[in-house]
Amino acid sequence: QVQLVESGGGLVQAGGSLRLSCAASGRTFSSYAMGWFRRAPGKEREFVALIDVSGAYTYYADSVKGRFTISRDHAKNTVSLQMNSLKYEDTAVYYCAAGARILTTNAHDYDYWGQGTQVTVSS
To answer: Are 114 and 23 in contact (CB under 8 A)?
Structure first.
């Protein structure tokens, strides 16, 4: 079992930066790839980024590539999402996820989810 708690969301102007963190509890955290997803108002949940167990492999949605960076710290049991050059369309609730048995952008493949953190970008 893995519990996930996101933090770091807030209100930022377009062009600004935020760093989201996801704190994980449970001894199996280090064996899972991790993902970040988001849900904007009135839209479906969408994939943002993922990172493999080692941290060496990352993958991003085209909409955030070059602006967002995912990383993980096994010693602290955390996964972070550094978001730069934020745009109005990045406004959403951001969720971290774990438990997928393969590297996947499909939210249905993840077993564990945090409660989400709101990111609001003003234009």
So the answer is: no
Q: What is the pLDDT of residues 3-13, one digit of tens each?
A: 999 999 999 99
Name which of 1, 102, 109, 103 is nearest 45 in CA terms: 109
Q: End-to-end alpha-carbon separation of the chain, Å?
A: 40
Number of CB atoms found within 10 A of residue 53's CB: 15
pLDDT tens-digit series, residues 33-44: 999 999 999 999
Give the C-alpha separation, 106 to 19, whole Å: 23
Other C-beta atoms within 10 Å of 108: how many?
8
Name the one residue in this structure whose structure tokens are 């978001």. 83
Tokens 């909409």, located at residue: 63
